[in-house]
UniProtKB/TrEMBL annotation:
<dbReference type="InterPro" id="IPR000742">
    <property type="entry name" value="EGF"/>
</dbReference>
<feature type="domain" description="EGF-like">
    <location>
        <begin position="80"/>
        <end position="109"/>
    </location>
</feature>
<dbReference type="Pfam" id="PF07974">
    <property type="entry name" value="EGF_2"/>
</dbReference>
<keyword id="KW-1015">Disulfide bond</keyword>
<feature type="disulfide bond">
    <location>
        <begin position="99"/>
        <end position="108"/>
    </location>
</feature>
<keyword id="KW-0732">Signal</keyword>
<protein>
    <submittedName>
        <fullName>Sexually induced protein SIG 1</fullName>
    </submittedName>
</protein>
<keyword id="KW-0245">EGF-like domain</keyword>
<dbReference type="InterPro" id="IPR013111">
    <property type="entry name" value="EGF_extracell"/>
</dbReference>
<dbReference type="InterPro" id="IPR050969">
    <property type="entry name" value="Dev_Signal_Modulators"/>
</dbReference>
Length: 197
């Protein structure tokens, strides 16, 4: 009478019929708060829940432990690994992230490059799926089938190369960009004779 399912990896729910989506570093993050109702917020090493299907290694109430390149521990940090990088919703049927407009990748882990040809990317201003129509979040339209139906094509309007901020910084006299989001923001390196985002 007290039996329950122990789900296989990447499955969850009472009957293990729901999928878990890919995780990535969260673009935006907050501490989870007082999960155990103890009236205190634990720190990065106080595991509150361990062994769940979504967080098999546990979950904490405070920000995750992070350190800088010198090894100094930084307090009140964010950007923990979250499902769909906190920039999309998980489709529990097929285990795919449906990303907010302007984000792509299996875990919505990076920003999309602008494109005039693809009205689903930011800055296009064309069609009903353009970024201008998504300034106010609408769960019924913004997430409807985006992950499966809208692919990124003709990025940079076909007149440039989509690159990470780390790559763009290096092309600017060998500058170094090595923060947590070095592979997240994307931008266009325009071909000669072309300008614009």
């Amino acid at each position: 009478s007290h039996d329950m399912c122990t789900c296989d990896r990447n499955f969850q729910g009472a009957d293990c019929s729901l999928r878990t989506c890919p995780f990535g570093k969260a673009h935006v993050d907050t501490p989870r708060g007082d999960l155990d109702a103890s009236l205190t917020i634990g720190d990065h090493n106080d595991i509150i829940l361990a062994g769940s299907t979504l967080y098999p290694y546990g979950i904490t109430e405070g920000f995750p432990l992070m350190s800088d390149t010198a090894g100094t521990v930084i307090a009140n940090t964010a950007h923990d690994y979250m499902e769909c990088s906190n920039k999309g919703l998980c489709d529990r049927i097929n285990g795919l992230c449906e990303c907010l407009p302007g984000y792509d990748g299996a875990a919505c882990q990076r920003a999309s490059c602008p494109s005039k040809a693809n009205s689903g990317t930011p800055g296009s201003g064309q069609g009903e799926r353009s970024n201008t129509n998504f300034k106010v979040f609408n769960a019924n339209s913004a997430f409807h089938g985006r992950a499966a139906e809208v692919v990124q094509r003709d990025q940079c309007s076909g007149h440039g190369t989509c690159m990470t901020i780390e790559q763009l910084a290096f092309l600017d006299h060998g500058n170094t960009y090595d923060l947590w989001d070095k592979d997240v923001p994307m931008g266009c390196k325009c071909d000669p004779g072309y300008t614009g985002p």
